[in-house]
Design goal:
Four Helix Bundle (Hemerythrin (Met), subunit A), 3 strands, three-stranded antiparallel sheet, DNA-binding, globular, mainly alpha, 9 helices, homodimer, Arc Repressor Mutant, subunit A
Amino acid sequence: MSGAARRFQRLHAELRARICLLDYPPGTLLSETALAQEFGTSRTPLRRVLARLEDEGLVESRHGVGTLVTDVEIGEMAQVYALRLELAQLAGTLDPLPVTPEMLDEVERFVGRGETLLAAPEPRGFAQLNMEYHSFGLSLTGNAALREMTERLYFRTARIWLKSIPHMDLADECAIFLSEMRETQTALRAGDTQAAALIRRAHISMSVRRMS
Amino acid sequence: MSGAARRFQRLHAELRARICLLDYPPGTLLSETALAQEFGTSRTPLRRVLARLEDEGLVESRHGVGTLVTDVEIGEMAQVYALRLELAQLAGTLDPLPVTPEMLDEVERFVGRGETLLAAPEPRGFAQLNMEYHSFGLSLTGNAALREMTERLYFRTARIWLKSIPHMDLADECAIFLSEMRETQTALRAGDTQAAALIRRAHISMSVRRMS
DNA sequence: ACAGCCCCAGTTGTGCACAAGTGGATAGCT
DNA sequence: AGCTATCCACTTGTGCACAACTGGGGCTGT
């Protein structure tokens, strides 16, 4: 990958994370000039990043106005969640990968971080851990297209949990998340990728119900 | 939608069609300058279109070389097809839409065009009709996310049939396609969207087997 | 004759200046 | 005072010039 493409990936991931962690809450007006300055480039490469974020539905550029961070409503996202459920399950049946020792190590570390989080619950840390855990979950299937679609849809809905947390019990959420990771650990230790996928589906589904 | 956005959509659809109909066969070197001239703009807006086509996997830009139309192998696309099968079926269960008289009219017209095609089989006309029929198929589900993912994956694999046709029987393919549309017509007349989705899945699956 | 080097035409990537457009502040009229 | 029209600071969109880079053709030295 060339230097330009790497920079693109870096800026894209960084801005996407800022949006999904609500560093840029919905409605925020992003300035191309300011962002370009911050990242040490001109507007041109940065505009390409913003164009992709717009494709992904995270921002919306309006001529003469600015680039706004889009808002997300759980209601509008019902269809996206319905599809995410199915894709999560498909990860267990479409090109499932054998469980490796490295994967078990990784999930072990996630459980450890989940325990740390449960000891000192905090929304942003939860969201960050959830994002990384999602990324790990992609490694369970060898189907690249499925990974790509799953990721696209994840980031489109990722902000909803953080927006909903004021109406929910943070400690409960952390405990449930830790529980999901432990169940997944058990499934993976048994080498049952499909079970891990079903656990994921179940927890996404329950998460939606709690947020609604 | 603003004028700039409409132009973007127009150029994007046009170039995507040219690539998928093999007007630009895999390996073709596209010139930003030449395309910009043809469409009466500067390179800047056109580059945005090419960037999106690159995201979608249809072209690949190399610094100092040019923008190449990507190649597609049925083998590499096995995973994409596997996912397309599942998504096709989901169109019948995720937010299926009630069948309207307009939809029946439309499928009737498709059957008519299929009969015309069968009378004078021709690869490009087949591919064109298939593309429009796919677009019609999207209207069976109300799930926008599913439509988006289905479309993305369709265009990623659309060229494979045209590439494979020299090794296949064109008349057979036209007959099978017409048969699919007639079966779908029957299902829709019965108001059974789910059956239509299963028919679609079955025909994608069989099409893959014939091409392999 | 051949190997190695360099140069150059041509391409995409970047930066900048300006065009197009928006929305609020402000001045002016009733 | 209130309403309206205009202006203006600021944004994104576009066009252009140049930088960065590639691959091949040709030249040169041996």
